[in-house]
Amino acid sequence: MSTPNYYKTSASGEDFIKDIEKLSLKVYPDADGYSVGYGHYLGKEKPPFTTITKENAETFFFADITKINTALNKKLTNRNLPQNVIDATASFAYNLGTGVYLTTLAEFLNKGDIKGAAAYMQRIVYSVGKRNEGLIKRRKKETELLLQGSGGGLLGALFFLLVLVAIFTFLKLKK
């Protein structure tokens, strides 16, 4: 049975990932292997080529984001997540893969614990056993995207309720 495509990284989410990854048409060493394009992982062995075209980079990116979207739809059972959360989660998975890190993040998101998910994301800043400044900056951007629009919480709801009571009281007094 195939997983329905409920969630999909938006165009702005894809741009977010591309902006963080930066385009490299030259193969470069990555944490535990080699990458090219928009962070497309090639594996541990040095590839037989050293450069690619922009079209190749786009093809790699499309294949990678398709895998990410498939994984999101398998792991995210909470069907009430806003697009900013999906895009931030896609960026996180694009960087780390669709294994244990995404599974753990999905546990928070499936419970609706966006702030817990953000706290978890901010802890994943190590590369080859060392804190990595690039990952710290990336997680900051990802958590900012993840938390967009989630600031109101209980205080926001109480304020809204207070405003409604004030309006109804004013209308009642006006009669």
Low confidence ranges: 152-160
- C-alpha Rg, in Å? 20 Å
CATH class: Mainly Alpha
Into which percentage range does the β-strand content fall? Answer: 5-15%
**Beta-strand segment tally:** 5
The H/E string reads: HEEEHHHHEEHH
Q: How would you write the strand order of the largest sheet?
A: 1-2-3
How many helices? The count is: 7
Task: Write the CATH fold name.
Answer: Lysozyme
DSSP helix fraction: 55-70%
| Overall morphology | globular
Q: How would you explain this protein's 3D organization?
A:
- The protein is mainly α and 175 residues long.
- It has a single domain (11-174), classed as Orthogonal Bundle (Lysozyme).
- The chain is built from seven helices and five strands.
- The strands form two sheets. The protein has a three-stranded antiparallel beta sheet.
- Strand 2 (33-37) and strand 3 form a beta hairpin.
- Helix 2 (54-75) crosses helix 3 (83-96).
- The radius of gyration is 20 Å and the shape is globular.
- Residues 152-160 have low confidence and may be disordered.
Secondary structure layout:
Blueprint (H helix, E strand, L loop, with lengths): L10 H11 L2 E7 L2 E5 L2 E4 L10 H22 L7 H14 L3 H11 L3 H10 L2 E2 L2 E2 L1 H15 L5 H22 L1
Antiparallel strand pairs: 1-2, 2-3, 4-5
Summarize the structure.
By secondary structure, the protein is mainly alpha-helical. It contains seven helices and five strands, in the order αβββααααββαα.
What would the keywords be for this entry?
60% helix, two-stranded antiparallel sheet, globular, mainly alpha, 7 helices, 175 residues, Lysozyme
